[in-house]
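Quick entry between incubations.
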Amino acid sequence: AQRVTQPEKLLSVFKGAPVELKCNYSYSGSPELFWYVQYSRQRLQLLLRHISRESIKGFTADLNKGETSFHLKKPFAQEEDSAMYYCALNPGYSSASKIIFGSGTRLSIRP
Amino acid sequence: KAGVTQTPRYLIKTRGQQVTLSCSPISGHRSVSWYQQTPGQGLQFLFEYFSETQRNKGNFPGRFSGRQFSNSRSEMNVSTLELGDSALYLCASSKSSGGEQFFGPGTRLTVL
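Done. Structure below.
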């Protein structure tokens, strides 16, 4: 079964500390993986996707097929990073969208 | 350019009624996807429409249906409402099926 697991409901770190939001997926094929973010009172929005291999707002995520993980990392957390983060999987590249979301991790950055 | 809009933003219905939610995608976007968000189940995919055709469907009962019009606007219908249908319903649009999705603000449905 296709599944995305985010083991932490809440992650609290100090400003300037490194951040790692964990995401593991279950899928037998080659999925497309994303991180979505929802800031307070804002819409859900795409943060990054693994095929882009970009760094957005200082965040990076590497797909590890061996460990079926797609952890989100940032070396130095900023207060504006506080938000809800969702890891997501699309089972088919360039095909119909059927995004499967994880349960989300609330990231809280302490000053 | 204007983002994805959803109407109404809030809705209260009673069990057994039916409801229709509307989503207007970003201009030029042809794919519209619908999601249900609840505290217990999180974000769950309902269905996707592209060029007026349903391309994919999640694991929801047949009471949940949708359609897309020629201008890419989409509607979602839930018949015979149940208490468990209370949720935030999100719509997302993208230029192509499988492309980056842009989300609307959601419609908060409460079933009493």
